Structures are given as structure tokens and as C-alpha cells.
Give the backbone structure.
Amino acid sequence: MTITPELVIFFLLAAVSIGAALGMLFSRNAIHSALFLVLNFAVVSVFFIMLAAPFIAMVQVTVYAGAIMVLFLFVIMLLGAEMLRRGGSPLRWQTGLALLLAVLFIGALGYVVFLRAGPLAAIAPVGVDYGGPVDIGTKLFQDYLLPFELTSFLLLVAMIGAVVLTRDSRGRGIGNRLSNPGATSATLKELGQVGAPASPPGQPRP
Amino acid sequence: MQPVPTLYYVALSALLFTLGVIGVLTRRNAIIIFMSVELMLNAANLAFVAFAREFAKLDGQIFVFFVMAVAAAEVAVGLALIVTIFRTKNSINVDDINQLKG
Amino acid sequence: MPDRLRRLRPLLPGLLFAALLLAVPAVSWAAPVLQEGEGGGGGTFFALIPLILVFPVVGLFLNLLFGKALGERWSGAIASAAAALAFVIAVLQLVSLRAVDYVAQVVPLADWLDIGTLHVPWAFQIDTLSVTMMLVVTGVGTLIHIYAIGYMHEDVRVNGDPSRFTRFFVYLNLFLAAMLILVTGNSYLTMFVGWEGVGLCSYLLIGFWYEKGAGGVGNARAGRKAFVVNRVGDWAMLLAMFLIFWMFGSLTFTDVFKTLAGIRLDATGQMTVTAITLLLLIGAAGKSAQIPLYIWLPDAMAGPTPVSALIHAATMVTAGVYMITRSNALYALAPFSMSVVAIVGAATAIFAATMAIAQFDIKKVLAYSTISQLGFMIAAVGLGGYVAGMFHLVTHAFFKALLFLSAGSVIHAIEHGHHHSAAAHAVGGGGHDDHDQAAPDAGGHAAAAHAEHSFDPQDMRNMGGLWKTLPITKWVYLIGALALAGIVPLSGFWSKDEILLDAWSHQNWLVFGLLIVAAFFTAFYVGRQLMLVFAGPPRTDAAKHSAESPALMTVPLIVLAVLAAFGGLLNLPSIGGWTPPGAHALTEWLDHTLGALPTGEHAVIGEGGAEAGAEGALNFVVAGLSTVVALVGLGAGAALYRGRPATSTAADPLARTGFVFTVLNRKWYVDELYDLIILRPYNWLAGFIANVIDWRFWHDWVHDTLIGGTYNNLSRFAADFLDRGVVDVAISEMPAALARGVAGGLRRFQTGYVRYYALMVFVGVVLVLGYLLFVAR
């Protein structure tokens, strides 16, 4: 294996990625975890660029690191869950067993990757525009049109779901709920009902 | 530039995936668990793109596109769920959600 | 219906009877199809022989099924008609035999047994010997049937069960059928069937009044005694038959006697033949009441008098004599057995005669007399004098039946008189004309009943003076008694004299002496009886008021009296040089059967054989001796009992001999002896086997404890351990436990913790990955 600059960069970035992942895992502070994850995503985005997928890299940064992680951060801050309370876990075996299995798992994967995989073909060079938006768009709207449309539908449903789930009995959103903590305790049942949930006495219906 | 062998990317992807699994199984904070899931998805994306590059087929990247879209949707709904649960339980410790035990 | 015709109604049965009697021979004479043209010329009626059984059987079934509805007259008439028709058939056989020159016929009926080498057909043996027996049985039987109609009419009323009338005639006809099977059988086995059958009927008829007798069971006990004692004899007969079959390969007379002709016996054969003959003797001793199996016959007097007459005087008891006579060829080969037979017969004769002189019951005297006379017959055949034995059998049937029936007439007269005298003494009671126990005045009946309970109409001490009151019975009784005593010229003299002559000519002085003394005793007790019953003043009111029996009873008596008087004509000897017409009739008649086989030293009568000359002529020495003995005995008895005992309670004149009289009266204590040495050990053994071995050991221990207990334990084991323990556990508990365990185990997977579920998923992933990588290559 010849040491090429790409390889060096890869290893460096790989180490950062793994470090960020580990940081995310072992962080006490949820915010820190989120930020570590953001770092990870950024690194992976660089990987994408190295793999001739610039569009995907941009989407990664935009959607993943930009939207999803921001959402995470919002929720963390909303719930005030930065600091997880320390407490005994009822599942004592969980951690140990998980680590053991993880070792097994990585061992199996390593075995596959390094020992079972046959010789790989040489990677052909690609053009400059490979992986650019034009290429992606063409592929997307020609071969994968149906999944594309379905995905949009999926996003719509998710949006509706998110709105519905966070409604309270009075149909208001989360904001009102949290600004009125002494108000009605919303059970899952109430939340699940769209329309006219049973209102406790004394509370006028909206 | 000589590209990095795909195998390394796949190995890295495996490693990230495993770390994500460890996170899911080990952490009790629901949000952290969620984030670990995102890490896992991300690792899978990396593998997709690596192989797409190797075989010079764009389909892998399209897959990643869709994965991201779905991941976004999933995060939205999932976080909404977490918030809802937090309302009743006042806790995001997943170990506190154990009413369906046998 | 016009009055005259209505009065004829009671006579209808008798008329029908007479009509049948005449019709059968008329029809069979007229119908050629019934005749067989065998033996040249003239009709023979051998084919009709099965009818001799059919008539009594039909009669018994008619009475069995319809007897109650038919009423007394009709059922009696049917039974008597059956007997009479059987007699007619017997006569026809006699006629037919004459037509075929007295050659023995075998008329087969059916194949009976066909097992391996044993072939026993059901066939009739028609020869002079069996025809003799047939005639005696059916002839005397018919007379007794007719007599019984009148007798039982009174008897069922005295004993209080008029509905039992028809049963009596069913039994009588059954007996007749069985006896005829016995005498017409062609083989020992067929004869044995009849043998057993008459034993059964004897039992049934002795215990006819089964609820009466001493202690309410006396009659039943007597019947059982007869049956059991007969059984001993039957057992011996069976053994004899087994030996016969073993030795000759067949049981039919023709086969056996054919094999015997010209046979040479080795030591084993001789022993076998001796054994056979001795066993047959034991069988005869059982049936013909010889020592040691005679004990049942006196007890058998518990039955009604016609039964005593028919079965225990004339027919059944003679079966033994008949059997020995029939087996004469066998006996001829075993001289030892013959001497045993003769000794047994003579000993019985004298032994029974001694007991007869000390009895008070009129029927008991006749019973012992019968045993004694049977002893005479057995002694005769033991000496080889088969003709003498058969002759005496015939004459004895006549006069003994006569005596029994007359005794029945006497008994009824006494009962009659007793009933009337007791009623006459009753308070305010009038005479009862009918014997049905309808009681208008309880007081009179109470007195009468009380008197009846302790009054024995058969006790001779309650009789006396009946000569004046019983005109017909007295004469017939006298004739019978004198015939029994052997007074010339009555029939008994001729037959007894022949027996004595046989003993004399064989120079068997022991037998001769015993028989002479027995003859003396015979005459003695005859005289005693005549005196006690008829002579002197009546000792009781019952005797005083006794009345003669109706014609239905007295007419057969008269017929029998004629036969008893003139029966000697059957076999008159030549007197001096003069041969009376018809002399030796029976001898020649029987000779055709008995003389058919050449035999050994103790020859039966052969043509010109050793005995022919001796028996042909009357031996004046013997005859004179027997006459003197008889007269002396008669006179002694008459003299001793003239006027004594004076009253019914006075002692018997012979009681002066003290313990001798007691011993004789108590029958030499033989019954007590048998009870001691046989019955008690047997009963003990039976009780032991029944209670200890059967109940305690077999039933309680083996069955209950061993088998039952084992079974119960086994079933308990099976139920508790196997079923509840193993099966239930295996089938119901274990699957349940398994399910519970599995469920319990699986439940642990439902922790409710999401992380745990995720872990499980991951475990699955790892496993599948491992499988795919390393196992499924």
C-alpha cells in the first residue's frame, strides 16, 4: 500500500470521525454529544467529497448537520435534558453484553472486510461532474421517480404526524403546554385523539 | 489522485456503525440513543457512497439521498414522540418507559 | 245335555281308554304296512317297538302340559292308557317273536354316540328276556296306574294338596318310559340311561310329599338317601362299563357277547372279567337293594303306596336281577364272582327277613320282605339259575305289587275310619263326607286334627279286625301273603322252590341253608302280619270304622290276585313222570336268549345241559322241605300273634326276647353304623373341604387376599403411581410445567425495556451474521 496523500487524509479524518463518535457516546452533556455528532457528520461529508459525491456531501451538511442536528439541539434545550441524571440502571448486564456483542460484531465485519472480500477491481476514474447535481437529478427523476414521489409523501406524513403528536387536549401546540405546566396532564390517549377528546370538568372546550 | 481503497471506507463505516450500536444499547438518554441511530444511518450512507464510487454507479448516491430524506422524517416524528412522552413521564430515561413488561 | 248322557260323562275316560286298548292291535293287525314280512309268514310288529317308549312319553307330556286343565279322571286315564298301550306293544312283540322263532332282534332307532372307536346306537333289543321284562313292567304297571287313580284321589286330599294329582302321573309315566329304556336297550349304555332315569323317578316319587315326613324333611331326605345310595351302585356300573369297553371295544350286547363266545382268557383278561362282574354286582346291589346298599329301600316307603308297589317291588328293584341275567355270559367266565353273587343274595335274604319280623309299619314289613325276596333272586342268578331268578322276579312282581296295593287299601281304610271316628267324636260335629279340609266347625276339626297328628295309619298296632270290614282287600291280601310265604299251589311256591332246587342241585349247602332259614322267617312275618292286621278285635276306633276301597282300587287288586294265584303256571315243573301241559314254558321261552351262548361250568340252561334234567322235575325233598318250613313259620307266626298285642299300645309278643327284638326292630343298627363310619367322616371331609379349603383357603386367601389383593394393589399402583404419577405427570403436568417453564422463561424477555429489546435484536443480528459467515458457506 502506497502512502498517498489521500490515504493520509483519510486516516486523519477517520480518526477524527471515530473520536467524534466516541465523544458523542461518552459525553455526559447531551449538547456536547450533539455537537460531537455534528463534527462527525462534517467529517463524513468530507469523505463524501473524496468519494466523488459532492451533492451528497452538501446534502449531508445541509440536512443532517444543519437540520437534523439543529432539531436535536432544539429538543434537548426544550426538554432541559442536558444533564442526564445519574442512576442505577435496572439492566445491569446490558452494557457488558452490548460491548461483547459489539466486539463480536466488529470482529465478524472485520473478518469479512479484510479476509473474505475478494480482490477489488481497480477503481475507475470518473469525470469531474460525476456526482454533481446534474447527475443526481437526472438519475433521480428518471430511474427513481417513484421513490422520489413517495419520499415526498413520506415527508408530508411525517410532518403531519409531528404536528398531531405534539398537540394537547386543547389542540394547542407544545408551546402552550410548556408555558402552562400546571395545566391538564395529557395522556397518550388524549394526544392520540384528533378532534374532540374528553375534557376534564371545569375546562371549557376550545 | 489515487483513490483510497474502498475497503478502508467500508471498514470505517463498520466501525462507525458498531459505535452507533453501542450507543443505542448502552445509553439511557433517549435523545442520545436517537443520535446514535443517526450515526448508524450515517455509517450506512458512507458505505453506500463508497461502493457507488467503486462501481462508478450513481445508484448508491441516490440511495443515500433517500436515506437522508427518510432519516429527516424519522427524526421529526421521533423527537415529537420523545417530547410527548416527556410530558407524561417527565423523564427521557428510556428505562422509565417499561409499562409493557411481561 | 240330556241327563242320561251327563251321567255318562265321568265314564268317558275309561271308555276312551278301553277303545284305545282295542284299537291299536286291531289297526296294526289290519294294516299290512306296519307289518314286516321277516322270518317267513305272519306279521311281525318289531317296527312298532319305539312306540313302547312313545306312549308313556306322550302321556307324560300331555299330563304335564294339560294335566291341571284336564282334571283328575282324564289325567289318570291318559297315564293309564299310555301304560296299557305300552303293554299292548309288548304283547305284540311277544307275538312277533313267536313268528320269527324267537330269534333275537335288534331294531335300531338312531345313531347315538359316534366318538372315535365308541359307537353306541340307540337300538332296541327284542328277545325273550327283554320281552319278559317288558310284559311285567307294562302289565303290572298298567294295573298300578289304574289303582293309583283311586288311591291318589284320596291321598291328595288327606295330605292337603289336590293340585298335585297330575304331577304324580307325570312322574309315573316318566318312570315307565325310563324303565322301558332300561329293559329294551341294546347296549350297556342305553340300559344305563334307563338305570339313571328310574333312579331319578324313584327320587322324585319317594319325595312326592316333599314337605311332609319327619321334621318336615323326612320324605325329602328319604328320596335323597335313595338317590345317593343308588349313585354308589351307578358308579360301580360306570366303572364296569369302562372296563367292558376297554376289553371288548364296544358296549352293545351283541358285540360283547359275540366276542365272548369262544374266548380264551389270559390272566389279565380273567381279572378284568372278574372285576367287571363284581362291579356289576355292586351296581345291582344298589338298584336291587342288596347288602350293603339296601338301606334306601325301607326309607323309600315314605312315598305313596303305588310308588312302593311299582318301583320298589315290581320293577325298578328287579333291574339288577335283569342286568345280571343279561350279562350271564360274562358271569359264566368268572366263577368267583358268581359265588360272591350267590352269597350276597342269600345273606341279604336272611338278613332282611330277620328285620321284617320286628317291624310295626305295614309297609316296612313289605319293604324288608322285598329286600329279602330280591336276595332270593340274586342268589338264584348267582347259582346260575337264571330262569329260576326270572321266574321268581315275575311271580314276586305279582304278589308283592298285590301286597303293596292291598296295604295301600288297608291304609286308606284306616285313614278313612280314623277320619270318621275322630269327626264323630268332635264336639257338635257331624260327619264329613268329603275329605277336603273345609272347616265349618273349628272345634271338631281341632280335635280331629290333633288326633290325626299323632295317629299313624300305617302302624299295624292300630289295626286289627279288618277281616270283618274289608271284604275284598282281605281275600286279595291273603292270597298275596300266602304266595309270599310260598304255600302251594300259589305262584310264590313254584318260583321259590326252583331257587331252592338250584341251590340243592349245585350242592351249595351254605346258600341252601341260608335260603331255607330265610324262607322260615318269611313265612313267620307273613303270619305275624296277617294276624296283626286282620285278626282279632280292632285295636282302635279307626280300625273299627274302616271301610272298603272303591272299585277303581279293588279291581286291579283282584286282577293281581289272580296272577299271584295262578302265576305258577308259567313254569310248572314235571311232577314225577308227568309233564303238565304248558310246563317249562318260561324255561323254554327264556332259553332262547339265555342258552344262545355256550358257557362254562356254571352253565345256563342249554339244550340237554347239566341243569335241564335236574330242573325239569320236581324234587320232592326240596319241595317238601320248603312247604314244611313255610307252614311251620306261618303257624308259629299266627300262634304267637293270635290276640296279641291286645291294644295298640301293648308290647309286641316278641319283645320278650329283649334286646334281640330291639336290635331287629332297629334294623341291626345298620343305618347308625353307616352314619358313624361313612356319613360323619364324609360330612366332616365335605365341611373341611368346603369351609377350610374352599372358603378360607381358596376363596378368602387365594381369591380375596392373593388375587384380589394383588389386583387391588396392582390397580392402586397403576392408578396412583402409573396413572396419576407417571401418565398424568407426563401428559398433563409435564407439558404444563414445560409450558409454564417456557412461558416463565420467555416472559423474562418481556422486560419492558426498550434497550433490552434492542439488545436482543442485536444479539439476533450477530447470530445470523455468524451463521451466514461461518456455517452457511
